[in-house]
Specification:
There is one protein chain. The chain has four helices and six strands. By secondary structure, it is α+β, with helices and mostly antiparallel strands. It has a single domain, classed as Gcn5-related N-acetyltransferase (GNAT) (Aminopeptidase). The model has no long low-confidence stretch (mean pLDDT 88).
Length: 150
């Protein structure tokens, strides 16, 4: 049938948080991390579009995405982390207040250098500090890079 995408298996992953057992993130050289600011929205959306262009997830058009995301009751800009190198956006992880990782994306040039792992470890530490018992996420079973990371 035209317009119908094939079924993609999606796995739900739950990471139990035991504060004593969490390793600190090890950031690649040249990376700085900070919380999201509204003026990051267009470049962040572009990074998400680029990251999902071959599958592994999707992102709505900017005009739809921004109000949906920032208007969600679980939105907290302090749980959206932006990774930069020399002022350029190279990775991000967007989380909901419930301890759910909505999106984690790393620009190709920064993949396999530990940035994705550092972003995920950072999120785990933040949620552990907030008293969360676990962090959850979804991943398409065919997204090999993400499955290996999680």
């Amino acid at each position: 049938m035209a317009g119908v995408e094939p079924h993609v298996e999606v796995w739900r992953v739950r990471i139990e948080l035991e504060a004593a057992g969490l390793a600190e993130p090890r950031w690649p050289v040249g990376i700085s991390v900070r919380a999201f600011r509204l003026n990051d929205a267009e470049s962040l959306h572009g990074l998400l579009e680029h990251g999902y262009r071959d599958g592994g997830g999707s992102v709505a058009a900017f005009e739809t995405w921004l109000p949906q995301m920032t208007g969600d009751e679980e939105f907290d800009p302090g749980l959206w982390f932006i990774a930069e190198s020399n002022g350029a956006l190279v990775g991000a992880v967007l989380c909901w207040t419930s301890g759910f990782v909505k999106d984690l994306v790393v620009r190709e040039a920064w993949r396999r250098r530990g940035l994705g792992e550092a972003l995920l470890r950072h999120v785990l530490m933040v949620f552990a500090e907030r008293g969360a018992a676990a962090v959850e996420l979804k991943v398409e079973a065919t997204n090999r890079g993400a499955v290996a990371l999680y």
